[in-house]
């Protein structure tokens, strides 16, 4: 049996753990040794729910992040996204050293990573084979996050010089772009060629949708008690606040929009926040709102009539795999990319927020309300979502990913 270490970009969000935990669980069930490294609070709860080992932070201190969240929110592609995170040389050097320690201490046969640039670099430094699990717009062969625009800037920011300087200190070869590190020795794409298109020249394997849910997980009785005489809308905000002050990545705008447009309307609303607290500013929720920190994603997507969310790739895939349409308020360009792919498939609508002078994102509530009612009342959206769900069933998801990773580890890939 092989020994696998699952890593990812560290963030207090469930998007990346949601795609990685099912694969890790499948490998455990096949008899392999598996550990995950993501000590952030919300991901830790999901990892524990799956019964997986979550490695602690090593003794070496993790440096405080130095990042430009405005650039994260407006990044043209993954290269500019990483430039917003890793231009500070000392922080990048210190964070890389932590990941090198984690990999050396656990000593895996294979590192399986999602979107973790420095964990990919650390795997290269330690000379451990690397499998990457990505969405299409993060793969280095993609057209980026703003793929529908024609005026791509000739020179975009890149942290390649910093990454290469740190890599050289370990005797590791340089890369032309940071994104090149994400390709891995094996690259798996969550989604399908329809949801996550890449050029035919991209060396990848599509594995279809991955949605985490325990095999025996069910929705609580209070969800069933809501009845079916009114439309049920599932509002998923993700992390409402990433800091004590407004940031361009916050998804609190999703909750605000839902409360303003749907509060006391003739619909039922289930609000989940991915193990995050609802910000105190909202006080008591409207009488037709029902909050839970976390609910089983696949079951909730199948039960609701409409999803409202921030455009995270895992949220998009969860809804599409259940054949449920969405209205999306994308809070960063990466999420807008996902949202536009969904809308292009006819499975939902987008409401674009704007940045206010107060640092908060705002939307046109009338537009949001109209699009919610349009999607609920036009069967074409449901038909499109169901068609995509049916096409996704041709792929094996987490089990197929586990099979491919297992074969790679045994040298049979």
Descriptors:
globular; Rossmann fold; 413 residues; alpha/beta; 15 helices; 7-stranded parallel sheet; 6-stranded parallel sheet; 2 domains
Structural category: alpha/beta
User: What percentage of amino acids are in beta strands?
Assistant: 5-15%
Q: Return the CATH architecture of the largest domain.
A: 3-Layer(aba) Sandwich
Count of the domains = 2
Q: Based on CA inertia axes, which overall geometry fits?
A: globular
Helix content: 25-40%
Integer-rounded radius of gyration = 21 Å
Biggest sheet, spatial arrangement of strands:
3-2-1-4-5-6-7
Number of distinct beta strands: 15
CATH topology-level fold name of the largest domain:
Rossmann fold
- The quaternary organization reads as single chain
Low-confidence stretches: none
Instruction: Tell me the span between the first and last alpha carbons.
Output: 16 Å
């Amino acid at each position: 049996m092989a020994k696998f270490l699952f890593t990812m970009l560290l963030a207090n969000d469930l998007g990346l753990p949601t795609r990685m935990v099912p694969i890790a669980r499948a490998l455990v069930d096949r008899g392999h040794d598996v550990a995950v490294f993501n000590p952030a609070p919300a991901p830790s709860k999901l990892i524990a729910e799956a019964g997986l080992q979550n490695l602690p932070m090593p003794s070496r201190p993790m440096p405080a992040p130095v990042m430009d969240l405005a650039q994260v929110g407006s990044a043209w592609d993954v290269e500019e996204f990483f430039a917003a995170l890793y231009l500070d040389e000392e922080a990048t050097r210190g964070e890389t050293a932590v990941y090198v320690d984690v990999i050396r201490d656990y000593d895996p046969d294979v590192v399986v990573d999602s979107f973790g640039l420095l964990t990919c670099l650390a795997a290269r430094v330690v000379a451990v084979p690397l499998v990457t699990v990505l969405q299409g717009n993060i793969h280095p062969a993609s057209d980026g996050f703003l793929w529908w625009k024609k005026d791509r800037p000739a020179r975009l920011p890149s942290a390649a010089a910093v990454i290469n300087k740190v890599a050289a200190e370990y005797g590791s070869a340089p890369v032309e772009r940071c994104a090149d590190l994400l390709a891995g020795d094996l690259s798996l794409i969550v989604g399908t060629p329809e949801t996550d298109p890449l050029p035919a020249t991209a060396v990848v394997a599509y594995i279809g949708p991955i949605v985490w849910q325990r095999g025996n997980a069910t929705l609580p009785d209070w969800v069933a008690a809501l009845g079916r005489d009114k439309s049920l809308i599932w509002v998923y905000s993700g992390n409402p606040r990433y800091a004590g002050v407004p940031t361009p990545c916050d998804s609190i705008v999703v909750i605000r929009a839902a409360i303003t447009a749907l509060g006391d309307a003739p619909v039922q609303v289930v609000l989940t926040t991915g193990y995050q607290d609802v910000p105190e500013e909202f006080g008591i929720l409207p009488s037709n709102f029902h909050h839970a920190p976390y609910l089983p994603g696949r079951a909730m997507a199948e039960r609701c009539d409409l999803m409202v969310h921030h455009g995270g790739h895992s949220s998009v895939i969860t809804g599409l795999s259940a054949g449920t349409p969405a209205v999306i308020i994308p809070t960063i360009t990466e999420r807008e990319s996902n949202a536009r792919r969904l809308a292009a498939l006819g499975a939902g609508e987008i409401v674009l927020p704007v940045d206010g002078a107060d640092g908060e994102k705002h939307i046109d509530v009338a537009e949001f309300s109209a699009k919610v009612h349009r999607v609920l009342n036009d069967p074409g959206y449901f038909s499109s979502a169901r068609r995509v769900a049916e096409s996704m069933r041709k792929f094996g998801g987490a089990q197929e990913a586990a099979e491919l990773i297992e074969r790679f580890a045994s040298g049979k890939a």
